[in-house]
Automatic annotation (TrEMBL):
Annotated source species: Methylocystis heyeri
Protein name per its UniProtKB record: Peptidase MA-like domain-containing protein
Recorded superkingdom: Bacteria
Length: 287
């Protein structure tokens, strides 16, 4: 083998390895940035110590404080047990600071739950203030489920389940603007989400579609529209699972929060895999 060929092969291997490792390194980089911008440095709200805020966001923090007790009680009731650790909510006035602290590096995401905190974007205190209560409860659902899941090594539950659950228990938070009738029409046209048995740590918020919806149906904000359609379809499926077996659904949620395998638990409780039950759900929707 010639030197040039060996060099070319080595370069190709390094390129492939670079692409393979880029996502984990990017995730690690964002995590380290988030740790350096930990919300613990923000001042507490005097009237509600579980709320922290950036200077300039005090009025919004006060609104969050008013909503928080009812939201916490709602999530505990819906998800069947108290929070493992009482979550803290951080309210931001700077989009840049919020993006760094959230660990996603994306200021367009309205809220994120991580490391026992729920971080709220400035948009929820401004242009999207009508979403504040729903999104707060949505993220508290995530904080609840992952607060109990203390192992970094356990397989992550699929996003359709965690996001569908969060939309369901929050009364629609995260899927605003897409109602069930719109989701039914989308599924009838083949724009149904894909159902997997495990989630991905590197892409934990993404839900795929069997056939990608055309961008024009979402108007000016394709990302938000696509996400909210996916979340609404997931919510409908999760609600259906709870409706056909309320006790089994409660056991499934308990097993997931105890780091047990989602796939094995689902089959044990529902007698078939999640994709099989999804097919049954779609058949019912089409009728």
């Amino acid at each position: 083998m010639g030197v040039r060929l060996r060099t070319a092969m080595l370069a190709a291997a390094l390129l492939v390895a670079g692409f393979a490792l880029r996502a984990p390194f990017d995730q690690l980089r964002r995590y380290l940035i988030a740790r350096c911008n930990d919300p613990v440095r923000l001042p507490r709200l005097a009237e509600e110590s579980r709320v922290r805020f950036q200077p300039g966001a005090r009025d919004c923090a006060a609104r969050v404080a008013e909503m928080l007790p009812a939201a916490l009680a709602r999530i505990e009731q819906e998800q069947g047990r108290p929070f493992a650790n009482p979550p803290t909510v951080a309210v931001y006035v700077s989009y840049e600071d919020y993006a760094r602290a959230g660990g996603l590096g994306d200021a367009s995401v309205a809220a994120v739950a991580r490391s026992g905190y729920v971080l709220l974007s400035p948009t929820l205190c401004g242009d999207e203030s009508e979403r504040l209560a729903g999104v707060l409860a949505h993220e508290l659902s995530h904080s609840h489920i992952f607060g109990w899941r203390r192992s970094w090594f356990a397989a992550r539950p699929p996003s359709w389940f965690t996001e569908g659950l969060a939309v369901m228990v929050s009364g629609g938070g995260g899927a605003e603007g897409v109602d069930e009738a719109m989701a039914v029409r989308a599924m009838a046209r083949g724009w149904a989400i894909t159902i997997e048995d495990t989630g991905l740590w590197r892409d934990f918020g993404a839900i795929g579609f069997a056939a990608e919806p055309p961008p024009e149906i979402f108007g000016g904000d394709r990302f938000a529209g696509r996400q909210r359609l996916a979340y609404r379809e997931a919510q409908m499926f999760v609600a259906w699972l709870r409706r056909i077996d309320p006790q089994g659904f409660a056991r499934l949620l308990n097993r997931v929060e105890n780091n047990e395998s989602f796939k094995d638990s689902f089959v044990k409780i529902y007698g078939a895999g999640s994709s099989r039950r999804w097919s049954e759900f779609l058949a019912g929707v089409s009728r």
